[in-house]
Amino acid sequence: MKALVFERAVARFAAARVAATLRGSGHGAAAGPLRMVDADQPDLPGPAWGRVRPLLAGICGSDLATVDGASSRYFEEMVSFPFVPGHEVVGTLEQPPDGSPLAAGSRVVIEPVIGCVPRGVEPPCPACAAGDTGACQHLAVGHLSPGLQIGYCADTGGGWSAAGLVAHASQLHAVPDGLSDEDAVMVEPTACAVHGALAAEVADGACVAVLGAGTLGLATVAALRRLSDPGQLLVGARYPHQRSLALELGADRAVEPDQLDRSVRRATRSLRLAGQVTAGADVVVDCVGSSASLAASLAMVRPRGRVVLVGMPGRLHVDLAPLWHRQVTLAGTYAYGLEAGGRRTFDLAFDVVAAAGLGRLVSARYPLERYAEALAHAGAAGRRGAVKIVFEPGQRPPRQVPPDERAPRTVASGAPRPAGGRSGAGGTRRSGTRKGRTP
Question: Which end of the chain is more exposed for a tag (fewer CB within 10 A), N or C?
Answer without folding.
Answer: C
